[in-house]
Each structure stands twice: as C-alpha cells, then as structure tokens.
Design goal:
By secondary structure, the chain is α/β, with parallel strands linked by helices. It contains 13 helices and 17 strands. Strand 8, helix 6 and strand 9 form a beta-alpha-beta unit. It binds NADP nicotinamide-adenine-dinucleotide phosphate. The site of NADP nicotinamide-adenine-dinucleotide phosphate (NAP) has 32 residues, from helix 6. One of its GO terms (molecular function) is oxidoreductase activity.
C-alpha cells in the first residue's frame, strides 16, 4: 500500500518464487538470479521478507553484511535488544513508489498527509511522521473520537514548539489506526492546541466554477469534499481532477451525491457525511441553476430556481451547523457563491427594499419574501410588483441568499463561524452558455483565496463583488 492509500494486490507469483527459495545460490548463477528477484520484487511491491531477499540475492547480502560489520553492540545486550539495533522498526511501514513523488519531484519538503480511520471515524489530513517526532492529537478531537480523559495516561515529556513556546500536554493514549487496509497501533500525545481548518465541502462541483474551485483547493493540499447531484458526473469530475493533476493520488478528494434542491438528498448526504467525517471547516455553497438565456427573462422555472439557489444552501447550512468546528483561533466559514444580480439595489419595490435593508431583518421575513414572489409568479402578477428586472427568478433567489447570509453572519458572529458571499462576475460557464469576461479557473482563484483568508483577515457578513477580491461591500 502506498502513502496515498493505493493498494496493489500481489500479482500471482511466478513458478520460480522467491518465497520458496531457501538454498544459497552458486556464485555463477547470482547475477541472473538477482535480476530475476528484482524484477519480481518490483511487481510484488516489496512483498517478500528481508530474509527471503538475502537468501536469494547476492547483491542484497553484500550490503547489510558491510553495514553489520561496522555496527557496534555491547556484549551485555539481550538478543531482543540486538534485534532492535539491527531492525529499524517492527513492521507497519508505509512504502513509497515513484508514483507517490509529487509533480515537482523528490526535492520538496511537503508533509505527507493521509486520511486514516480511527475507531470508525475517518480523520483527514493526518500528518505521517518519520519516527523521529511525536504524534500530536489536538484535545478538541478527543470527544469526537469518543476517547475519554480517563483513557489518557500521563507523561513526563515537555513539549516545545518550533518557536520554543511550551505546549500544555494533557496526556497520552494508544489506539488502532487504519491506513488503507493496514491497521496498526499508534501512540498519540494530546495537546491543547488549536486546529487549523482542513476539510472543505463544495456543492455543484462537477463542472464550472465549483469544479475549478475544488481543483484549486485540493491542489493546495486541503481535503475537499466534491458533491454533485449526478453520481456519474461526480465521479467523472473526480477522475478528471486526478488526471489533470498528473499524480492525482496525492489529491485528498472525496465524492458524495448531493442534490441541493431535494431535502431528502440533503438529509441522506448529511447523515452519511456525519458518520464518515463528523466535522466541517469550510462550506462553499456553489450549486445553482438559471434557465434564462443571456437577454431573456422567463420565470417558467421560478420554483426550481428558488428551491435550488436559496432553499438548497439554507437547508444544507442548517443541517451542517452542528458539524462546524468551533474554535477561537481557527474559525469555520461559509462562502455562498451568489450574484450581484441579487443585490438589494436591484429590488424596485420600496417597501420590500426597506425591509431588506433593516438591521433587524429576520429569516422569516426572507422566507416570506420568497414565498410572495412565487405567489406572484403563479398569479402572473410578478411583472408589476417591483421585483428585480434581469433574470428575475435567479435574482430573487440570490437576493434571498445574500440577505440570509447577513442574518447568519450576525447570529453566529460570536461563535467562530464567519459567513460571506462572493459574486464571481460574468464567467464563461454553461450557465452563461460559455460567455463571460474570464474563465471558471480565474473566478475559482479569487473564490479560493476568499475561502482561505487567514482568520485575522476574514470578515463576516460581507459581499465580495466581481473579479477583484478587494471590492467588498456590506451584505
Ligand atoms: N457564470 C457566471 O457568470 C456567474 C456569475 C455570478 C454568479 N455565478 C454563480 O456561480 C456558481 C457556479 O455557477 P457556474 O457558472 O459554474 O454554473 P454551471 O457551470 O452551470 O455549474 C453549476 C453547477 O451546479 C450544479 N447544480 C445545479 N443544480 C444542482 C442541484 N440541484 N444540486 C446539486 N448541484 C446542482 C450543476 O450540476 P449539473 O451538471 O448536474 O447541472 C453544476 O455542477 C453559481 O452559484 C452561480 O449562480 C455564476
């Protein structure tokens, strides 16, 4: 198994199997045999024991013989201790192949992360150490893993960070950790340290801006949950991302089906996601529909538009709220991809505009506004009621999402959850039939920067407009 959890099953062993060999080979046969052994070894991904290798390969015998002849050992050591001097570890290794080397080659200092399973929970972005460091577990993770304080044992270890500041150690525990198919016991030191964000979820990410966002975020090393309403399109997107990345195995991507317009789909997704991950750091509500051509304004699909673009993100946020990690230094965040077509100034009905601008605007009033719009559409009176003039149903759905984001931002401002909106501008995607001033990748670059703003620079209740991340207004 490789670091990226790709599993290579053993190919069938050839007749001349190294496992069966126990006799030492005559010198004249060894060069040819060595080649054979190495060829077999390459195919079996090192699935032979060191002893088998030494027995069959002259070259491999020579190297450790040389090493052992210089290794010093005191005579009073027990046999067990001598074995420990010779062996580096007692098994459970993660092995690497050229396949694991990132695009920039071997000369890099990027940390190796893997998604592991601990007590039935998938823990993303676990940093694998090389044996010279301790395994750190932030104390906030303990309750999630259902590890009680009584399971922790003490330790005399004094831990200091790179800046020499002392870290408050809470205790030590050992647990089984599953990496791919391999399960091994690992000791963790529990520290009272903040967790930085690592888990992102993007809706409607099989194409367009959502797809480019996932690509950009996953390529920066984050664990990204790509969701799409269609399973085939979702998996195809994952495959495309892996192919485009060259060595796609070091992208931490997970796919889930999620149709945001269907409350049953939201419920099923959240229930599975909670079982698998149980936490979320960043939610990007990107999925949306519009059925209008650029210069058209039909409200034929108004109900679907409102269900997808407003109620979808709203229901998803409500269902995911318990999973947002609460932390004072590493805040969780929601970035709603909206549109300037949904700005309050597009609303021409003065009473409605006044209500939307009010500091005391409530969730009920927003839902009331959306229901009134649908009622007007059904009665055929929507044209005379002062609703936005361009792409009316889409504009109302995005307007509702904008002001709902403001309500949320106020409600959760002291709870470590920041809520902002981003209009990516006129972008070349299928929503605009390929027209636009820039590509989805360009828009995603700005979106990703906003999603990942450091906590001290991240506001809440703001509307980032257009292509420049500098242009920001109140929601
Ligand atoms: N393009 C622009 O000029 C522009 C401007 C301002 C704002 N935006 C916003 O940017 C976001 C991305 O739009 P885009 O331009 O990338 O459009 P897009 O290419 O049409 O992509 C929309 C994505 O949403 C998905 N989706 C639609 N309905 C869904 C549902 N019920 N459940 C789950 N996923 C669903 C689509 O999946 P399917 O493939 O299954 O349809 C697709 O993956 C949207 O919020 C949009 O309003 C776009």
């Amino acid at each position: 198994m490789t670091s990226s959890c790709r599993y290579y099953p053993d190919p069938p062993m050839e007749k001349d199997d190294v496992r069966g060999k126990a006799k030492l080979l005559a010198k004249e046969d060894t060069d040819e045999e060595d080649d054979q052994v190495l060829r077999q070894l390459k195919r079996t991904q090192a699935n032979v024991t060191v002893w088998e290798l030494l027995l069959t390969s002259e070259k491999h015998r020579t190297a450790p013989t040389k090493a052992l002849s210089v290794l010093k050992v005191f005579t009073e050591k027990t046999l067990e201790e001598i074995a420990k001097v010779v062996l580096i570890e007692d098994g459970g290794h993660i092995t690497f192949s050229n396949h694991d080397v990132p695009a920039e080659g071997r000369n890099h200092s990027r940390a190796l992360f893997a998604t592991v399973e601990v007590r039935g929970w998938k823990v993303p972005c676990v940093m694998i150490d090389d044996g010279s460091a301790i395994n750190v577990c932030p104390s906030k993770i303990l309750p999630k893993l259902e590890i009680s304080m009584s399971e922790l044992t003490g330790s005399d270890l004094v831990i200091r960070a790179y800046d020499d500041s002392k870290r408050n150690m809470i205790g030590v525990f050992k647990t089984m950790v599953k990496v791919g198919l391999v399960e091994t016991k690992v000791e963790f030191t529990v520290l009272d340290i903040p967790m930085t964000f690592s888990l992102l979820l993007v809706t409607g990410a099989n194409k367009g801006i959502g797809f480019s966002l996932v690509k950009r975020l996953a390529e920066s090393g984050l664990t990204v949950i790509l969701t799409a309403r269609d399973v085939e399109r979702g998996y195809k997107a994952i495959e495309q991302l892996r192919n485009e990345h060259g060595d796609g195995d070091d992208l931490h991507l997970h796919f889930y089906r999620l149709d945001v317009s269907d409350p049953a789909s939201i419920k099923a997704f959240v229930s599975q996601f909670e079982k698998d991950f149980g936490v979320l750091d960043i939610l990007v509500n990107n999925a949306a529909v519009s059925f209008n051509e650029i210069h058209e304004n039909s409200v034929e699909h108004a109900e679907t538009v409102v269900k997808t673009n407003f109620y979808g993100p709203k229901l998803l946020i409500e269902a995911l709220l318990p999973m947002f990690r609460q932390s004072t230094s590493a805040c969780s965040r929601i970035l709603n991809i909206t549109s300037r077509l949904g700005s309050i100034n597009k609303m021409r009905n003065p009473k409605m505009k006044e209500m939307l601008l009010s500091e005391n605007l409530s969730e009920e009033q927003i839902v009331g506004m959306v229901n009134l719009f649908i009622e007007n559409v059904k009665k055929g009176t929507w044209k005379s009621q002062g609703w936005p003039e361009i792409w009316t149903d889409y504009a109302v759905s995005k307007l509702a999402l904008n002001v709902y984001s403001r309500v949320l931002a106020t409600r959760y401002k002291d709870c470590g959850l920041r809520v902002n909106c981003f209009c990516p501008g006129f972008t070349q995607t299928s929503m605009t039939r390929g027209k636009g001033t820039h590509t989805a990748a360009d828009a995603a670059e700005v979106g990703a920067r906003l999603a990942l703003l450091p906590p001290h620079q991240l506001p809440t209740g703001k509307f980032y407009i257009g292509f420049s991340p500098g242009i920001v207004s109140k929601l």
